[in-house]
Amino acid sequence: MRSVIAALLCLPLVAACGSSSSAEIVSTGKTAEISITNFVFAVPENVMEGDLVQLKNNDSEAHNFMPLDDSFSIDVAAGETVDLPLLEKGTYQFHCHIHPDMMGTLVIN
Ligand SMILES: [Cu+2]
Which of 6, 52, 69, 82 has the greatest number of beta carbons closer than 10 A? Predict the structure, then answer.
């Protein structure tokens, strides 16, 4: 009997331990791509919460993706593709902090 109670007590702990910072966002398994070409962001529409947004740099210079609230910052080297963290629903105005004139808006539905 004692072991059953111990097992029941452990379950919520295991669930809690399995969570990460993006636990509330369930991955859709889909991807969307923001591409950068000639210092311009091309931002996809109809991005859903849980979609993996990738950042593809078609230029021969490094770029960056940083929301204007500075909540995170992702560098992408020339010719590379990187993953953004899963984002909650909302409208994200962002720029490249290396080239602050490079601006874009990503809407997550
Ligand atoms: Cu840039």
Answer: 52
